[in-house]
Amino acid sequence: MSKFVFSSPRKYVQGAGVMAQLGDYVAELGNKAFVVADEIVWKLTGKTVQDALQQRNVEFHYQQFNGEASGNEIARLTALAKEADAQLVIGVGGGKTLDTVKAVADELKRPVVIVPTIASTDAPCSALSVIYSDSGVFESYRFYNKNPDLVLVDTQVCAQAPVRLFASGIADGLATFVEAQAVKRSHSKSMVDGDPTIAGMAIAEACEKTLLTWGYSAYQAVEKKVVTPAVEAVVEANTLLSGLGFENAGLAGAHAIHNGFTAIDGDIHHLTHGEKVAYGTLTQMVLEQRPDEEIARYVRFYRAIKMPTTLKEMHLENESWENLLKVGELANSEGDTLKNLNPNLSAQDIASAILAVDAFSQTVK
């Protein structure tokens, strides 16, 4: 029997300068907060966060994030949050900080507030975290029984981040509808363990349309560190539309192949999540036998926003066939989502498609 599930955050707030209103929204959830951010993010946003919370008499304890969404880091922060007797947990920063904070809030059974400072992934809105080892190797997805209580996105803050991170969010978002279509076609389950909903598919499609329509002009604006209507649209697509789309319509090959890349060492790990997902999306398209012109359109768009489309740009031009097979094997593991694309793919199929993307991309003018 089919089961349709749709999941979303309790509240989503976006706009230039909204971080100054954080206290207004947090006060609805509690008055004793445990705040997590890395050192760089806290230097940039700490005063604004502190002032916003103090204006609404919300007590807070700040703790620095150590950089990896791992079991050990989650355990460390959970113990400190318990010690602080936190009523809620606030994460400020990028995807790994936010994934870690969601896990800490789940351990404590407390509300969680997500404050992205970059529009670089679709992690903020989801009821899951991607868990890595302390050394950064993908281990598993961790699922929660609810989405964040509040997601607050200050577009002025996001526009100050390096444009490469903004572009990475666009690349991550462009995987959403590509993967959703595969899940729907294979009658697989979404990330909330239901059949893809009409709403989830429509949101995923709107995400792709928004990014291909305004992604390039928004990229140009963020390069100048300004917020325009196109930037607002693309931040919403990167964060809300992509988040709701991937969760309620599902993941398939692009993210599984991204996770597969963690099986090998080297300079590839200096790339962002979105940069690796971009190559994973092209690889999925090759595995699906999508029309050449459709793949070429994505290649051209990725190039326009400086996302990698060749093995050289992925720092994999000298990688051995054996290592590409390792990528395929990890991507195809039981705990990942490649089977939503095709349950009959082999590690050799994936490695061949990775090479085929490189060959095809080099011919696109």
Automatic annotation (TrEMBL):
<keyword id="KW-0520">NAD</keyword>
<keyword id="KW-0479">Metal-binding</keyword>
<protein>
    <recommendedName>
        <fullName>Glycerol dehydrogenase</fullName>
        <ecNumber>1.1.1.6</ecNumber>
    </recommendedName>
</protein>
<dbReference type="GO" id="GO:0008888">
    <property type="term" value="F:glycerol dehydrogenase (NAD+) activity"/>
</dbReference>
<dbReference type="Pfam" id="PF00465">
    <property type="entry name" value="Fe-ADH"/>
</dbReference>
<comment type="pathway">
    <text>Polyol metabolism; glycerol fermentation; glycerone phosphate from glycerol (oxidative route): step 1/2.</text>
</comment>
<dbReference type="InterPro" id="IPR016205">
    <property type="entry name" value="Glycerol_DH"/>
</dbReference>
<keyword id="KW-0560">Oxidoreductase</keyword>
<dbReference type="InterPro" id="IPR001670">
    <property type="entry name" value="ADH_Fe/GldA"/>
</dbReference>
<feature type="domain" description="Alcohol dehydrogenase iron-type/glycerol dehydrogenase GldA">
    <location>
        <begin position="9"/>
        <end position="155"/>
    </location>
</feature>
